Structures are given as structure tokens and as C-alpha cells.
Amino acid sequence: MYSKILFAVDDDEALDGAVPVVAALARIWGAEVSVLHVHRIDPNAVDGASRNLVTTVVERLQDAGVRAHGEIRLADHRDRVGPVIASMAAGTGADLVAIGSHGRSDLGALFLGSVSHDASGGLEAPVLVVRASCTAPAEPRTVLVGVDGSTASDEAVAEAADVAASFGARVVVVHVNQVMTAEGVAIVEPEEQGRAILRRAVATVEARGIDATAEMPVDHSAANGVVLAAERHHADLVVLGSRRPSHLDGLLMGSVAHEAIHRLHCPVLLARRVRTALTPAVPQGDPR
Question: What integer is the mean pLDDT of 83-111?
């Protein structure tokens, strides 16, 4: 499925959870991992701590049977890491970008809604975020995918099916029927419309010979509906669609994925980027 994984790392507690997950993915697909650390303390030199960090991660991956090598990129202390990661991903032909994040560092902020508006470039590849609080097993047995009937969620279903097929996992398809309020009146999506979205997604998964179940919770928040479903089903991985803008500053800001990443204790995979025209409303499940 993936052949080249770019693993962006920082020296924090998230590494302990992220390394086994990246190693498991790389092993199952025979992928090569490029470990990247963006060094910003001194733009004129690489310090020993940065070298040790990259070397340690590379060795841990190699000990797990993964082909891995490391690289340190220098950046001015005023620069954001987003464009550096995007450039590296494009330059290496990475088909998956993985990051371990505690959500406080500059690196973690890239995927948690704090990238500056002047960040340039964009990520086409899927993005896997593993929080420091991750308690899920490295090899997923239950994959949950959120759908809304959009092209982006179709891509998420395909990604979820591929991962599940690789690990022999089951898939739970969730469509949150989000309650909207207008002038004091609660509005919900017609049930049959939601059921049709679920049937199409389940058919795609089952066509791969994968066990799939579906549910349509009703919730005022799409993110809350996804998170609660993931907790009910003990999901080891959550996959969400992504209609990302060209700049990294919009990657997850104000999004379902933003909240899900903060609340879930399992990795979140943002499916391959889907370019669509801007619309007045953002459907539920869209991590824009």
C-alpha cells in the first residue's frame, strides 16, 4: 500500500507510541522509512541532541526489521516546520507522512491547528498522527472510518479498506447524522440518505473481502459522534477524509479531525488529499 514513509519526529514523549505504529506499517508493506527532524535552535549547525534523536529512531526502526534512514533539515528559528515537511515529502516521493505529536511543540502544532498563514506548499499524501496518549496496539484489529458521502470520504473508505486488508482487521463505517438548529428548530438529515451513504461505503469494504459493520449515530457534533463511536468499538485506527487547502495552515484548523486527534487514544489517518471547489458549507466528516 505504502512504499515510502516520511516520519517527522521531535524529541518528546510521543515517540514511544509512534515508533511501533510506524514500524508495524512499514513491515507489513515492506516500506522504507525516512526519519526527519527539523532543527531550528541554531540554523548554522546541527547539535548533538538532534543527531542522537534521529539516530535513535532509525536504530529502533531497523531493530524492528524496517529499512530506515535519517535526515536533519535546518530551519531558521522564525520559520515554521510545515513547509519543510511538505518539501521533504514531495522531494522523497513519500506516499505517507507520519508524525508523533503531543500537540504542544511546533511540530505537533502543524497537525493540531496552529500553522501560520504564511506556510507554503501542501501535502498530497495521507497523514498519520499518533498522539503521546496513544494506547492502541501497533497493528490495528479494528479500523473505524467516518463517511459523509463526499469524494473525500470515498478516499477515506478506500484507505481504511487497504489498511484493514493488510492487517486482517475489521472495519466500522460511521456516518454521523448531525443535528442542526435553525430558528429553534432541529434539522436532521433524512435517514434514508444516511443509510445510502453507509451502504455504499460498506459495499466498497466488503468487496475487498473485509468484515464491515455500519452505524449512524445522531449527534450535535460530527466530531463527537466519531469519537464516541471509536470508543464504543475500541477502534485501533480512525480514518477520515481530507479536502485540504493548498496551504498547510488550513490542514486541520477548526475541523472534525482536529477535535478527534485531541480526544482519541488511537492514531488518526487523514486520507489522501482530495482537491474540490470551495462550497458554502462544510459537510460533517470534512477535516478542513
Answer: 74
Instruction: Give the N- to C-terminal CA distance of the chain in Å, as an integer.
Output: 24
Write out pLDDT tens, residues 182-194.
666 777 788 899 9
pTM (predicted TM-score) = 0.84
Burial class of residue 68 (count of CB atoms within 10 Å of its CB; 0-12, 13-18, 19+) = buried
Cα distance between residue 35 and residue 46, in whole Å:
15
Please give the CATH topology (third level) of the domain spanning 142-270. Answer: Rossmann fold (3.40.50)
Q: What is the DSSP letter of 249?
A: G
Question: Alpha-carbon distance 49 to 43, whole Å?
Answer: 14
Give the Cβ contact number of residue 254 at 10 Å: 11
Compute CA distances 200 → 9, 19, 183, 238, whole Å: 37, 34, 33, 19
Please list, in sequence order, all residues whose beta carbon lies within 8 angstroms of the beta carbon of residue 56, skipping any fewer than 6 positions away. Answer: none
Comma-separated ranges of CATH 3.40.50.620 domains in the chain: 4-131, 142-270
- pLDDT number for residue 41: 64
The better pLDDT of the pair 182, 32 is held by: 32
CB distance 121 to 247 below 8 Å: yes
Class of domain 4-131: alpha beta
